[in-house]
Design brief:
CATH architecture of the largest domain: 3-Layer(aba) Sandwich
Number of helices: 11
CATH topology of the largest domain: Rossmann fold
Number of strands: 14
Order of helices and strands: EEEHEEHEHHHEHEHEEHEHEEHEH
Structural class: alpha/beta
Shape: globular
Number of domains: 2
Largest sheet: 6 strands, mixed
Helix content: 25-40%
Distance between the termini: 32 Å
């Protein structure tokens, strides 16, 4: 459904996408991950034909981009990072009016609205003003709006940013339903647990390059020791420097927390016995550990 080969894009002499290549199969959920400024948004804009590339080739829904970008976008759904619903329209009207961008007749849209509202869990909000909706409701409506043209491929830019845990789980449930129906999903997110739950494969970008790509569980097993012990409290710097390296394969100090990557956590936890100033959390390695290892601890603006 999407094939990107050797994509390059520069702004003011700075290359922000550096020869990126990846493909997404029909029915797959693919996550494009990376810190701020990694090149994710530019890559997706190029894929949709909204930004022209400097080099490389893109095919979206079997069509060459940017030559047939308008036709390809007509077959594509997009859920943007920020809700851009029209506050002057009701819930149902937002869907009907959006359908006009795709040339869908009003009668056809009126027939589709009940199904879309059911998908969003907003059956009883058809005539409601947007000002009466919660953030989670608006997000679900934005996701439903991306389906007005019955697309087979859907781009989702940070679909759960700013939502409470209950709303996030509702969105996840809807996305899993789309995937089960055979839709192709391309997802960007800063929530690694979200990517781990939803994505068949993920690609991690940093500084314009695709630096890793695989199924989440395979990335975790290939990049990180199976157990992580997070140690914090008074004296953690000394513990990380002198004690933890004897029991962990790798130790990283970030702020006031020492991340101890172990094949077996028991010896490290035993070494902490009697040190009441330190606390520990022992857990399995996850995709966030991979992300931090590959892209670093530094904050990106």
């Amino acid at each position: 459904m999407l094939q990107v080969r050797g994509l390059r894009k520069s702004y003011s002499g700075t290359e922000v996408v550096c020869g990126v290549s990846f493909s997404v199969a029909a029915g797959e959920c693919y996550g494009l991950l990376g810190p701020n400024g990694a090149g994710k948004t530019t890559t997706l804009r190029c894929c949709l034909g909204l930004t022209g590339s400097d080099a490389g080739a893109i095919e979206l829904a079997g069509l060459e981009i940017p030559t047939a970008a308008r036709v390809a976008r007509a077959r594509t759904g997009v859920c943007p990072q920020f809700d851009n619903l029209d506050p002057d329209f009701t819930v149902a009207e937002n869907l009907v009016v959006y359908g006009r961008y795709f040339g869908i007749a009003r009668r056809t849209m009126l027939e589709r609205v009940p199904r879309l509202l059911e998908f969003a869990g907003l059956e009883d909000k058809s005539a409601a003003a947007l000002s009466t909706l919660s953030g989670g409701m608006k997000r679900r409506l934005t996701l439903a709006r991306a389906l007005v043209n019955d697309p087979q491929i859907i781009f989702l830019d940070e679909p759960t940013t700013g939502l409470d845990p209950q709303a996030r789980h509702l969105i996840w449930d809807r996305l899993k339903g789309l995937r089960a129906s055979g839709r192709t999903l391309i997802l960007t997110t800063h929530f690694m647990d979200e990517a781990e739950r939803l994505c068949d494969r993920v690609g991690i970008m940093d500084q314009g390059r695709l630096i890793a790509e695989d199924a989440p569980r395979r990335l975790i097993s290939s990049q990180i020791e199976p157990h992580v012990v997070e140690v914090y409290g008074d004296g953690v710097q000394a513990f990380a420097a002198h004690v933890a390296p004897r029991f962990a394969q790798r130790v990283e100090l970030s702020g006031e927390t020492a991340f101890c990557y172990c094949r077996e956590p028991a010896p490290l936890l035993e070494a902490m016995q009697g040190n009441a100033a330190l606390r520990a959390l022992s857990r399995a390695a996850n995709l966030e550990d991979v992300f931090i290892k590959l892209t670093g601890h530094d904050i990106r603006d």
